[in-house]
């Protein structure tokens, strides 16, 4: 599942960051790296951008960019991880 498919209040662990060149480098530089826990906090009224919580800070990214980030979804609020699909 990709990050753009997650609803507010849900999250997971980043498995892979796609994209290429400068876009991929920018996503990685913002802290969106594999094995990082990420939570979707809000999605703007028109659906873009989305606000994420990761590594102790808030980050807003476009849904188009979030679609390049594959995550393993958390199945409940305890931090337990689901199968991602």
How would you summarize what this structure contains?
With 85 residues, this protein is α+β, with helices and mostly antiparallel strands.
Describe the 3D structure.
This protein is an alpha+beta fold. It is 15% helix and 34% strand. It has two helices and five strands; from the N terminus they run E-H-E-E-E-H-E. It has helices spanning 21-29, 63-66, and strands at 11-17, 37-43, 50-54, 57-61, 69-73. It has a five-stranded antiparallel beta sheet with strand order 4-3-2-1-5. Strand 3 (50-54) and strand 4 (57-61) form a beta hairpin. The longest helix is centred in the first third of the chain and has 9 residues, at 21-29. The protein is globular. It starts with 10 loop residues before the first strand and ends in a 12-residue tail after the last strand. Mean pLDDT is 87; it is low at 78-85.
Query: What strand line-up does the widest sheet have?
Result: 4-3-2-1-5
Strand content: 25-35%
The level of helicity is 10-25%
List the total number of helices: 2
Oligomer, anyone? single chain
Structural class: alpha+beta
Low-confidence spans: 78-85
Number of strands: 5
Task: Specify Rg, calculated over alpha carbons.
Answer: 12 Å
SSE pattern, N- to C-terminal: EHEEEHE
End-to-end separation: 6 Å
The mean pLDDT is 87
Apparent shape = globular
Tell me about the largest β-sheet. Answer: 5 strands, antiparallel
């Amino acid at each position: 599942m990709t990050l753009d498919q997650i609803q507010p209040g849900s999250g997971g662990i980043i498995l892979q960051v796609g994209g290429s060149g400068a876009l991929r480098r920018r996503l990685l530089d913002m802290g969106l790296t594999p094995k990082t826990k990420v939570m979707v906090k809000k999605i703007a009224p028109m659906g873009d951008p989305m606000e994420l919580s990761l590594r102790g800070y808030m980050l807003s990214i476009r849904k188009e960019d979030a679609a390049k980030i594959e995550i393993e979804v958390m199945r409940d609020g305890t931090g337990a991880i689901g199968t991602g699909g």
